[in-house]
Amino acid sequence: MDRKWTFDYIVVGTGPAGAVIAKILSDDKQTSVLVLEAGENNDKDKPIRDSTFALELEEQFFPQYFWQGEGIPQEGVDDRSFEWTTGRLLGGGSSINGEQYVRPTPDVFREWEKLLGPLWSPRRATRRFKKLEKYNGETDNPSARGYHGRLDIRQAPVHPTSMAEKLTAAIEQATGFPEILDYNDPKTPLGPFTRWQLYQDPSGRRESSSKAFLSLDIMTPSGRGVKGRKLRVFFKSTALRVLFDQKRAAGVEFLKEGKRVRAYARKKVIISGGINSAQLLMLSGIGPAPLLKKAGIPVIFNNPNVGQRLRNHTLNTAVFTTNPNDNALPANDPNALYTGGAFLPAPMEPSGNRRAVQLIGIGSDRHLTLALLYLRPKSRGFIKIQNNDPLKIVLADEGFLANPDDMEAVKNIYRIYVKNIAAKLTSIDPAYRLISPTTDIIDDDSKLEDFIKENFDHNHHQQGSLRMAPLHRGGVVDRRGNVHGVKDLIVADASIIPFTVDGNVSAPAFLIGYTIARQLQLQDKKPQKRQGKRQPFENEEE
User: What is the pTM of this model?
Assistant: First the structure.
């Protein structure tokens, strides 16, 4: 085939990382960028732009917006299976998620820095988040927040309801952690709060990666760059494999509206496919050699770490009756979505100061559901391809509760946090009573374990299957996202997270995309030939 489709960079995926990278690289009007998106531009669809659909999208999976797949039965939760899916549309998962904006805490980035160097230090992470965000809310630490970035973040609601205030007061009394104003302030990562920070513009409309970084001032609805920008987005284009020339990533073969075609990259191929990135690497010949050979895939680089160390947070719930006079959300702000919440340490560490539990209040006319996420699980899963068919769903085992310590941690969330919060909430307002699980279930170890397994749910916080680390420490990519063993191939998305983040994964995915894009910009500005040996971490300031 001819090389009529040749660009400086090819980016696979338009989620948080891919969209940021495409925008930043094409800011240089001399740099050409091709972006491949398997889905369509659905930004104008009411379920996408209207934030009130956010929870419904997560629960019901509108088939036109999602990859369709299912993970293998999970032994830790009575062989139940869960969906293995993410967004298949412009904006990727950011167009269909629950809109919660949660930065990882400095504790997480200190782990990253120890493994990867100062490029990922807490200080630099905070500085980059500030450059990304346009914060519309209150904080006790304005110097920690960004107000001029492209990513609209709304603190909602402006006036919390009595239901949110009662829940927050109960959590404060039950745990001893005072109410906080801004959980994304590195100085206040723990405590209950009445107002969530959401990916929304000031009007409450969803702020996806496409709306923020591939908007009408960047590209036309058809995917062409504007204002001289050498950017193209191909919709309905599913990446099949990376093309190599002597272990150099030279392009991508993809399915475009039913036809198998190729595009070529002068500089780099960047994979930002989220949960699909591991499969694409293996289809391209990078992964465990025995598995690839069995699937009939020529091995480019044998790396047994590919697809391993898959992690996800746990998700369970507790349900309370409510006072019929209390509204879950303000009548004038249904886009606020959530009714208070909290970030707390592990309940078995009463003096702990590290975030380990996320509580999310989801109110309705009759009930208040408290979502319970354990953020520091020890269980690990894996991703494996079944054959060389790129349209075949992978074998995805998320290993939920495979490590018995995780079951014990979730039990303690119920025994300590839920039980005490329930008691305080009832003392504040007797109309609020814990009905699921009941206290007799919490007090019975066997019944509680059965309840957790039956009540367990999936939260789409997959991370770590293509770990950012040295090869000998389980790595698939280095600290700049470069894939080990080959040249000019990068992975940039939540799959390269090296240590589990203590919150939702979309914020770190934005950060990863921004950091890697800036590193590529710096590389492009350097002379092609350099004298002397490069120092390990020089020139990594922005």
Answer: 0.96
